[in-house]
Amino acid sequence: MSHSAFIALGANLGEPLAALRRAVDELRTLGTVEAVSALYRTAPVGGPSGQPDYLNAALRLDTDLTAAALLAARHAAEARAGRERARRWEARVLDLDLILYGDQVSGDPALTLPHPRAWERAFVLAPLADLDPALPHPVTGETAAQALARVGPGGIEQVSPTWTQ
Questions:
Q1: pLDDT tens figures, 37-63
Q2: Domain, as residue range, for 41
Q3: Are strands 156-160 and 39-42 parallel, antiparallel or unpaired?
Q4: Is residue 42 in some structural domain?
Q5: What confidence tens digit (pLDDT) does each residue in 69-96 have?
Q6: Contact at 8 Å (CB) between 77 and 23?
Q7: DSSP state string for 22-91
Q8: How far apart are CA 84 and CA 102, in angstroms?
Q9: CB 87 within 8 A of CB 47
Q10: 49 vs 63: CA distance, rounded Å
Q11: Which of 9, 109, 117, 160 has the least C-beta neighbours within 10 A?
């Protein structure tokens, strides 16, 4: 059975654009990438000061994998890119966050769905709104576009609408 998953992509160390492009290619091996958002530059949120800006995007993946298997595959892709998980919200060569997996809701600390902070962060919401402005939060019903209007797009800049080419 196929599931629609929305994944946020981010990177701010090494060669972020190349890392994000490789990540899209890897995610294609996990299902069908139905759409990819524009690419955005954003200031870091939280974490140690002095980090470089992030490049952020999102994609919609149709996959037969379970949410848990998709989580494991994403962590493996991050590790192959050189990601180390030493401190929370630190700079990273690649970050792949599962934002939504169909309309599944889970409070499991290992896999919380929907992503607990996604509807509060413009750097996640702007790319999600590119993919589907009417995309609803499975608990509140607030759409990605409504949440982006509420949060405000401050601090994000669209870099390229066609960055995967």
A1: 999 999 887 767 778 899 999 999 999
A2: 3-160
A3: antiparallel
A4: yes
A5: 999 998 888 777 765 655 555 567 788 9
A6: yes
A7: HHHHHHHTTSEEEEE--EEEE---SSSTTPPPEEEEEEEEEESS-HHHHHHHHHHHHHHTT---SSTT--
A8: 28
A9: yes
A10: 37
A11: 109
Q: Is the pTM of this model over 0.85?
A: yes
Q: Name the amino acid, one letter, at 45.
A: V
Tokens 């490049």 -> residue: 55
- 9 inside domain: yes
Greatest C-alpha distance within the chain: 44
Tokens at 13, concatenated: 């160390």
Label residues 127-158 b or e (16+ Cβ within 10 Å = b). bbbbbbeebbbeeeeebbbbbbeebebeebee
Number of domains observed in the structure of the chain: 1
How many other β-carbons are positioned within 10 Å of the β-carbon of residue 103?
13
Is residue 165 in a domain?
Answer: no
Round to the nearest angstrom and report the end-to-end CA distance of the chain. 30
* Alpha-carbon span 145 to 162, nearest angstrom: 21
Domain assignment present for residue 139? The answer is yes
